[in-house]
Amino acid sequence: MTTRRVLTVSAGVLALLFSTPVTASAYPVVGAPELTQNPLYTVPALPSISCKAVKGTTKASTTAYLKKVVGCLNTAWGKRVKDFVPAEVTIKDTYEHSPCYTGIKVSGSLAAGCNRSVEVQLRSDWIKAKSELPVLVGVARAYAGFVQTQTGISEAWWALRYDGEEAEMNEQTHRFYQQADCLAGVSVRSLGRTARDWGRLLSAGTPKEYGKFIPKWYGKPANRLAWFKTGYGSGKPGACNTWKAPSPKVA
User: Fold this and answer.
1) For residue 237, what pLDDT is reported?
2) Which pTM does this prediction carry?
3) Distance from C-alpha of 31 to C-alpha of 130, rounded to nearest angstrom
4) Is the pLDDT of residue 100 over 50?
């Protein structure tokens, strides 16, 4: 058996996943209760938070907005996660010096959960954006990574073992990132934001430079959107247990 170390891809992975019966998982997650039975899934819905974050179109106002949003999310999640430690937020012009840097240079803005913080590469696209929603969804998804770290999910995912099959590793990677999409939906609902097209906003939050990796890391856009809407619709972290979902739902 092999422990995951890097994200790799395999031709035909999606074909394998699509051929799996709807009621079954090609690679069920076993022996990892931190993933399948995490205490996070038993907490009530996140409370509604009055988050009066106002995004301007200057670097200073956008910086203040980002800090306010992370503060609001800390308030919401802090009421539900045991032994919660608030996320810090780091805003910089370039993300490349972060310990969580993927090695892929991103030209636009980027938010990422890194250990116990939310790190933001702030560029003109987010600064000049007149709508807060693309920025908010990007930050909420990064914050989801922080929640996964805080609750032991990230560590348990990295410790998963697989039998040398890239398809298995890719499926579990989809479970991890689509869970982040779902938790982002929970967060956005808690802050009381609404939108007509969450799919477009979810896609906008993913850097274009990640293009060829999107289906390999994150899975199908339709599934990502479905999980985001599941989290948003319920407001409950327990709705985001992707680790028990049938394979087609996390393809």
Assistant:
1) 98
2) 0.88
3) 47
4) yes
Rounded Cα distance, 77 and 16, in Å: 37
Sign of CA pseudo-dihedral 159, 160, 164, 169? negative
Kindly state the tokens that stand for 145.
């990574």
CA distance 139 to 22: 32
**Which residues face 89 on adjacent strands?**
118
C-alpha closest to that of 186 among 151, 211, 157: 151
- Residue 33 CB partners (closer than 8 Å, separation 6+): none
Main-chain dihedrals φ then ψ at residue 153, nearest 5 degrees: -70, -45
- Of 216, 136, 235, the residue nearest 178 (C-alpha): 216
Q: Distance between CA 248 and CA 18 in Å, rounded?
A: 6
Backbone φ, ψ for residue 122 (5° rounding): -100, 120
Q: Are strands 110-114 and 117-121 parallel, antiparallel or unpaired?
A: antiparallel
CB 2 within 8 A of CB 162: yes
Could you write out the three-class secondary structure of 130-194? CCCHHHHHHHHHHHHHHHHHHCCHHHHHHHCEECCCHHHHHHHHHHHHHHHHHHHHHHHHHCCCC
